[in-house]
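Internal QA ticket QA-208
Title: Verify multi-chain structure generation after dependency bump
Assignee: T.L.

Test input:
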Amino acid sequence: MARPTLRISFLQACLLLGLLLVLGRAAQLQLFQGEDWAQKAEQQRTTRDTLEARRGSIYDRRGTPLAVTQEFYHVGVAPNEVKNRREVVKLVSRALRVPAGELERRLRTERYVYYHGPYTATDIEPLRKLKGVHAQGSYRRSYPTQSIAAPVVGRLDADSGAGGSGLERALDDLLTGRPGEAVFLRDRRGRRLESPARRVREPVPGNDAWLTVDYALQDIAERALEDALHDLEAEGGDIVVLDPRSGEVLAIASRQTAGVGARPTAFTDPFEPGSTAKLFTAAALLRLGRVDSTDVVNGHCGKLVVATSARATRVISDVHGECGDMTLSKAITVSSNVAMAQFSQRLDVTEQFTALRDFGFGSPTGIEFPSESRGALKAPEDWQANYTRASAAMGYEFGVTALQLAAAYGAIANDGVLLAPTLVREVRAHDGSLLYRHQPEPVRRVIPSDVAATLMRYLRQVVSTEGTARGAQLANYEVAGKTGTARRFIGGRYQGYTASFAALFPADDPQLVIVVKINNPTKGSYYGGATAVPLTKQMLERMLAARNPALDFKRLQESEPVPLATREVRQPEAVAPVLRVAWPYRDRDSTASEPVTVPEVAGQGVREAVLALHRKGLRVTVHGTGIVARLSPAAGSAAAPGTTVHLWTDE
Amino acid sequence: MFWLLLFLVVAAAVTLRQSAAIRLATSLRVLREERATLEARQADLRRRISEAQSRGSLARVAENLGLHEPVDSEITPLMVPRARPRVE
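Actual output:
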């Protein structure tokens, strides 16, 4: 008996041991290696995919799409999955616009027929239910308005898919969404099953940007510029249209006849402004009280010889020489170099430099564009007092961009307050909620109100029958402006001309600042009055006749139309121009300026720091390059506008 | 018997739930595709509208009809009479 009992006990022990081994192994797999095995199983059964986030759209100020992200498709056909080859060939060749014969041949000879496209959802709609036809979707950027505003909107970088140029680049962080992640089931061959995805993270679409640009106005500006360049056989040109009460850029067009495409030269290429800059010297003379309405200089019949050193002289000449006495008003009206050169001697170098700097020259405007030029304005110590003062009064020896010039004229139209120009009006999240709305951003008061009013009178006279811009006169509305014709400095010498015109429309309560610049017009006259002025007039006519113009007709009607025949050249004492400031703005005349708080700029790049300080009305001296390490006066302290802040960098 | 029934009920519930989820996923995909198609159509129509409304296209049509763009003397601004304050 003992033996069977022993055998049974032995068997029981073996079974128990086996059970223990199984349990032990199970415990090992579950408790100690459980996570690893679960992960392996997950990897075999599932696939983790990134869900692309839609990039935000760019619209004009009225909602016309300028850049949108759409779903596009690549199409593949698997011949072995196709049930009805004839139907597939017919529908696919029609939808993808490929020859049926070629598709038929490829289906016979290839294992997988692939068409990269990309095709729109509309294109592939008839193919969606066909067996064996696979459409793979991806987001692509498209530009519905094609070339209109293309240099401003920019394009995506072909390799990275991020913003490559223009506003696509400047606003890249805003427009780019946050990609999501999802887990999908897959079969043993690794193919994704049509099953509910487990969303690990939802994709967040990018924000949408509404620009200040008006599509209709942009269209008018671009076409007018293109026609003018063709008619004048010019090398290129820029047009900037700006709202002086808000600083919003309504249109900005740049064209070059040489090379491919259009570069945004209105932001990037400084030029010597010529006579359009005479007004800034006039502003300094009036602000500092160096000239009154009765002061005169002699016109010297259009030819003035001045001594620039002990042995050197310089000849300054006018096109239409005036022989008698000229007031400052007259000098601006007839654009006299001789008179302005003489008036400029009443300013010292620093005063003239300060006037130009206060109007924003020599500093970037801070507009949301990635490659804006600061222009060129030499420091006062680099000026040759006997030479540069007269040159600067005539618009030479410093460089401005078309945008800077428009912003400076905007300050005159805006009661003397310089506003930062902007291209972005609103930013909205994908759900439509408002994230940002532009408010007029005053940079500084450049000139007191009375000086701005006087300059407006001068500008009206330029467009009167006596002035150089008489061709800009409209039948029903008064225009103000200043012409310019400057030699172009290229390759170390002066050759060709830059013709320009800066206009304010209407002269009462201006709604638009229009700066037109034409590079080297070679057919016909090269003067601003004969090239840029007619172009401006043509644009204004088109704007007035347009269906959805950017003009506020209600405001235009408030300033009663003045028929040309009855219009008189207004004398200074007879005019009380209406100048309105649209937002609550605390007046800060240079004589009664209140202290401002020095902003904290340590840790910022020099460029950003200088911009922030300039916007507070402070002057800046930079010591070094790189990142700002410290500043004096210290951040948070009070300083009068115009105080020089010293920045020391870490390099 | 009870356990068997319980197993069958749970298995049936899981199957039904999975089937419903797959149906929903399919209809969601179809809806997404429809939305993409409509968005593409909308973008195409917008592009065509803006092209048709552009000055380039309109000017050509207008010229063919013998029209021209008005010069400033041909534009007549119409004054809207201002509302007089009501006297009560």
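Spot checks passed. The two ends of chain B are 93 Å apart (CA to CA).
Status: verified.
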